[in-house]
């Protein structure tokens, strides 16, 4: 299946397909373009050719076809509005490369096509009423504002975009607010602001968040995090189930 999509939210949709659909036995390819098809120098023809080649390759998964590359949906982000290489997957890289000169697409060295699953297609339930909020730490008073929001937040789940390895300022009021949110049943996922970052309890601040009930997102990016939490909150996942899903996706250690 080929899906033509606007690029601004393409990675979010790709992650939704990848995480909500289980048992795909055919390729599901998303593509778009930075400039309209008829514009001079448009990247649309090349992206469509890449997507068509991806369909012929037949990988039974959801991928993004852009600028001659195939990216796995999970972990992919839009990284540029100015150049043809508008998408990237910092942790997992490209699955395949399309050669315009040869007119064919080749899998990355050492990568073998995955076996087609059996058992049929199954979809996770998506609850449109679920609310997921996102909070980004910046130097200054942001930690206090986030703490105040978490104490009053009616969201079912929240993303914390923290520093480096998942670090936050050492602030007792902030940790108390986090603990209050998670003790009410809210799922709070900690991800790194760094494009190729990994949120883990490496330092004391990260460990304090973990002890307050925060789930470490590891290599999870914003697009993947938002979809995972939407599914988690809509299907009553526990924090333990969320950790297991992150590990199964290769985003954290088991």
UniProtKB/TrEMBL annotation:
InterPro entries: Asp/glu_Ase-like_sf (IPR036152), Asparaginase/glutaminase-like (IPR006034), Asparaginase_C (IPR040919), L-asparaginase_C (IPR027473), L-asparaginase_N (IPR027474), L-asparaginase_N_sf (IPR037152). Gene3D superfamilies: 3.40.50.40, L-asparaginase, N-terminal domain. One of its GO terms (molecular function) is asparaginase activity. Residues 132-239 form the Asparaginase/glutaminase C-terminal domain. Residues 2-102 form the L-asparaginase N-terminal domain. This is Asparaginase family protein. It comes from Neisseria elongata subsp. glycolytica ATCC 29315.
């Amino acid at each position: 299946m080929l899906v033509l999509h606007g690029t601004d939210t393409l990675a979010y949709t790709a992650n939704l397909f990848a995480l909500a659909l289980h048992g795909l036995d055919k390729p599901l390819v998303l593509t778009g373009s930075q400039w309209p098809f008829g514009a001079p120098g448009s990247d649309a023809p090349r992206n469509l050719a890449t997507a068509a080649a991806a369909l012929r390759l037949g990988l039974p998964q959801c991928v993004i076809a852009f600028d001659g590359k195939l990216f796995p949906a999970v972990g992919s982000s839009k990284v540029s509005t100015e150049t043809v290489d508008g998408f990237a997957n910092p942790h997992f890289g490209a699955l395949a490369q399309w050669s315009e000169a040869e007119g064919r697409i080749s899998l990355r060295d050492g990568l073998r096509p995955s076996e087609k699953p059996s058992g049929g297609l199954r979809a996770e339930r998506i609850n449109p009423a679920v609310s997921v909020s996102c909070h980004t730490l910046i130097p200054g008073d942001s930690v206090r504002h986030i703490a105040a929001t978490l104490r009053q937040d009616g969201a079912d789940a929240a993303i914390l975009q923290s520093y480096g390895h998942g670090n936050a300022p050492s602030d007792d009021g902030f940790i108390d607010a986090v603990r209050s949110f998670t003790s009410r049943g809210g799922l709070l996922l900690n991800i790194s602001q760094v494009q190729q970052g990994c949120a883990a309890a490496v330092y004391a601040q990260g460990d304090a968040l973990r002890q307050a009930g925060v789930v470490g997102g590891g290599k999870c990016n914003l697009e993947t995090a938002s979809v995972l939490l939407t599914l988690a909150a809509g299907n009553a996942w526990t924090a333990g189930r969320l950790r297991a899903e992150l590990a199964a996706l290769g985003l954290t250690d088991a």
